[in-house]
Specification:
The chain has three domains: 48 residues; 44 residues; 48 residues, no CATH class. Helix content is 71%, strand content 0%.
């Protein structure tokens, strides 16, 4: 049985060396292997000791990727990190590395790009759909309102 544990450890080290993973992800990967719970925990502990798994590093990387590539807001990122069962203090510490400007920088571009595709009978209806879109991306209502007001001042769109 020790051979199975060593094989699982080698497999997980290869996986972790190619990308960032958290404990939750590794548990999901180990679920399909024929190991007892104690053996799975031993593999996870060995990965932590070898710094193949670092939840703070994972959270920082996850936030950066979701901001840059998916253009998500803070709330959606927090929700996804909680679903990955990361401790709240790890999440909060990772967010401290990012400024508020970085967290909401993608919102104006998202709204500008989305506005022409939104259909509605009135500007009010279109704006409501735009707000729901931004809320779904994880931005706060306050951020959305400020951004919409700024875009209106800049004349990006008219109130029809």
């Amino acid at each position: 049985m020790e051979k199975m544990v060593e094989q699982a450890f080698r497999r997980m080290t290869r996986l972790c060396s190619r990308g960032e993973y958290c404990v939750f992800d590794i548990r999901q990967k180990l679920r399909g292997m024929d190991l007892s719970e104690e053996e799975k925990e031993a593999v996870i502990q060995k990965l932590k000791e070898g710094r193949f798994i670092d939840e703070a590093r994972y959270a920082h990387s996850f936030i950066g990727d979701k901001l840059r590539f998916n253009r998500w807001g803070r709330k959606k990122i927090e929700l996804m990190l909680h679903q990955k069962q990361l401790p709240g203090e790890v999440i909060n510490q990772a967010f401290m590395d990012f400024s508020e400007e970085e967290l909401s920088a993608s919102l104006p571009g998202l709204l500008k790009k989305k506005w022409p595709t939104v259909t509605g009978a009135s500007a009010y209806e279109k704006e409501g759909k735009l707000i729901r879109f931004a809320l779904g991306r994880g931005f706060s209502m306050e951020e959305i309102r400020l951004c919409l007001d700024q875009l209106k001042k800049e004349g990006v769109w008219n109130d029809e």
